[in-house]
Amino acid sequence: MAGHMEREGQYAVEKPLLVRVVGSSGDGREGDAAASASSPSSSPSSIAAVVGSTAVAVAGSFEFGISVGYSSPSQPGIMRDLHLSLAEYSVFGSIMTIGAMLGAIVSGTIADRVGRRCAMAMADVLCILGYLLITFSQEILGGLTLGGSQLDVVPVYISEITPKNIRGAFATVNQFMICCGVSLAYVLGTFITWRALAFIGVVPCLLQLVGLLVIPESPRWLARFGHSGAFESALQRLRGKGTDISEEAAEIKDFTENLQHLPKSKMLDLFQKDYIRAVTVGVGLMALQQFGGVNAISFYASEIFVSAGFSSGNTGMLAMVAVQIPMTGLGVLLMDKAGRRPLLMVSAAGTCLGCLLVALSFLSKEQHWGKDLNIVLALAGILIFTGSFSLGMGGIPWVIMSEIFPINMKGSAGSLVTLVSWLGSWIVSYAFNFLLVWNSYGTFFIFASICGLTVIFVERLVPETKGRTLEEIQASMNSSLMPSQK
C-alpha cells in the first residue's frame, strides 16, 4: 500500500485552467443560485469522485458503529457464558474506551506523519486483530485493541476532500454510517451469538483496506507536507478530469504557505491565545456530547428497557434501530441547508426531553404509578433521545472539529478532542451501571441538565460554518491565519 501511495507524487496537473469564481460571503451565505449551479465543485464528475472516496472512508465509520453497538445485545450472553458479575461486565463494556484513549494520544501524530489513508489502514489492521481476539475469547484484550483502532481520521479526511457547498452533508455521512453499524449490531445481536457478531465486524475493515488502494490522499495534507505534484493530481481527481481547480488550488496553497511560517505545533500550543476559541468549541462540544448520556444508552439500552419494566430489551432496541437511521439521514439532508448551529440546538433540546422522560419512567416505577406508564415513558424517552441525537449531536461535533482547526494544528487538536471524547465515554460507560443502582431517575435528570446546558453552549460559542471554505473558517477564528495580501 505504501508504494501505491508514494506513486501519487509522480503525477501532476500540467496546465492549470482559468477559474470562474463562485461567490460566498464570510458569514456562510452562498452566492446566487446561477453561480452556484455553474460551480465546478458541483459537477457530476466531482460528485462521483467525492462519493467514491467518502464511501471507502465511511466503511471505517460503519465498523466503529458495530463496535459501539456490540456491548448492548451481547451483555446477557457474555455474562452468562463467561460467568461475569455486573462490575466485571462494566469493565468489559468500558474497556474499548480505554483503548480509544490510548489511540487518541497518538492518532493525530500518525494521521499527520503517514497521511490520512495510511492512518485508516492502520486502524483497520488493529480492528481486525481486536475482533479476532474477542471471537477467540480474549475479550478484554480484544476490546482494548478495538478501541485503540479508532483513530477518528474519517471526518477529517472527508472535510478535506469535499467542496464547501456539500462538505457538511458528506461529513455527516460519517455519523450516518456509525448509526447503521450500531443498528446492525443491535439487530444481529438479537439473533446470533456474541462471538459470531464479533466476527462479522471484520468484514467492513477488509472492504476498506481494499478501497484505500484506489482513493486519493487528502489534497490539503499533500500540500501541507510539500507534495505539490501529488496535491494537484489528487485535487484534479476529486474535482473531475476537465474541471477547473486553479482557484481552489491557489487558495489552499496560499493558506498553507502562511502556516509554514508558524512553529511546529505541539498539543500545549493549542492553549495559546490564537487557538483557544477553537479548542473551547471543539473540546466543549465533545465533553457535552459524552456527558449527555449517549454511551450509557448505546451500551446499556437492553438493560435500561428491562429495568424500566420490559420483559426483554430486544423490542426496545429494534425500535431504536427504526428511529436512528432515518433521523441521521434527515440530518445529512439538512446539514448544508439549515446549518450546523440550528441542528445542534434542536438536537440537544430533544436529547434533554428524552432524558427527562426516561427519568420520569424510573421515578414512576419507584413510586408505583403504573407499569404501563413506566414502559411508555421509557420507550418514548429513549426513542426521542436516539432520534434527536442522531439528527445533530451525534455527527455535527465531529464535523465542526474537522473544520475549525488549521491543518498545522489538526493532528494535535484531533488527538486532544478525541481524548476528551473517549475519556468522557469511559467515565459514563463504566459508571453508568453503578449510577443506575444508586439512583436511576436521578442519573437521567443529571443527563437532562447537561443536554440543556449544551443548547446554551451552542447558542453562545459555536460558530456557523455552513457554506464557507476551511480556510475562511479557520482564518475567522484566528487572525494570525488571515490570507496574505498580494
Question: What can you see in these coordinates?
Answer:
The chain has 486 residues and is an all-alpha fold. It has 22 helices and no strands. The chain has helices spanning 2-7, 33-37, 44-82, 86-114, 116-135, 139-148, 154-161, 167-189, 194-200, 202-211, 219-224, 228-239, 246-260, 276-291, 294-307, 314-338, 340-367, 371-393, 396-404, 407-438, 440-461, 470-476. Helix 3 runs antiparallel to helix 7, helix 7 (154-161) packs antiparallel against helix 8 (167-189) and helix 15 (294-307) packs antiparallel against helix 18. The longest helix has 39 residues, at 44-82. The model is unreliable at 1-42 (pLDDT under 50).
Task: Give the tally of β-strands.
Answer: 0
The rounded Rg comes to 22 Å
Q: Give the structural class.
A: mainly alpha
Beta content comes to: under 5%
Q: Uncertain runs with pLDDT below 50, 5 residues or more?
A: 1-42
Helix percent reads over 70%
Q: What's the main sheet like?
A: none
Choose one word for the global shape: globular
The mean pLDDT is 78
H/E element string? HHHHHHHHHHHHHHHHHHHHHH
Q: In oligomeric terms, what are we looking at?
A: single chain
- For the record, give the distance between the C-alpha atoms at the N and C termini, rounded to a whole number: 40 Å
Count of separate DSSP helical elements = 22
